[in-house]
Amino acid sequence: MTYAKRNGFTIVELLIVIVVIGILAAITIVSFNGVQQKARNAQVVSGVQAYNKAILQYAAVNSAYPAAAGCLGANYQTNQCWLGDQGTQAVNATLDSSLAEFIGSKPTIATDRFSIGIGNNMRAGALYRPSPVTIIYYLQGAGQACGLSGASGGTEGGVVTQCLLTLSPL
User: Fold this and answer.
1) 83: part of which helix (H) or strand (E)?
2) Contact partners, residue 27, CB within 8 Å, separation at least 6
């Protein structure tokens, strides 16, 4: 009795290949999301650093910090960096014009707001507050390093890191 030689793959072989491809795809997606988060956080830290320098230069020239509060940076959705239970914060033209000579073109710190894991609160980029003189910014991911000398941070809502940079009194 002779048997015909069969060409092709068995079902088991095909299933093994599909499972391996699925595992590789999952690993790639997870690592890509991590890269995106790191890039976004680096963009926020870089923008906050530029604004910190501009605010300090403003204070050196004017012997006072800017008096207006507002979002730092450009390209926010509807010009708002904070939404939710704790109020809304928006870009402030007075603050922007005060810092214009010291910052040049406004950097894009962040554009898409994201949930901070508490109520309906959404955040993006950074916020300047004149009393006390602070810059508050959010980094995606819990337990992130704030990346700036003098900035302190803590996990908020279990999903983000809130960083607080308090400027010294004049």
Assistant:
1) strand 80-83
2) none
Q: Token pair 């214009």 is at which residue?
A: 100
Is 115 strand, coil or helix? strand
Q: Does 5 reside within a domain?
A: no
Q: Is residue 92 part of a domain?
A: yes
What is the DSSP code string of 30-70? Answer: HHHHHHHHHHHHHHHHHHHHHHHHHHHHHHHHHSS--S--E
Domain that holds residue 138: 11-166
Token couple for 10: 């068995």
For residue 2, is it within any domain?
no
Q: Is residue 6 part of a domain?
A: no
Dist. CA 110–CA 112, nearest whole Å: 6
- Which ranges of 63-156 does DSSP label H, i.e. alpha helix? 93-103
Phi, psi angle pair for 95, to nearest 5°: -65, -45
**Count of domains observed in the chain:** 1
User: pLDDT tens for residues 41-84?
Assistant: 999 999 999 999 999 999 999 999 999 999 999 888 888 998 88
Q: In terms of pTM, does the model score above 0.85?
A: no
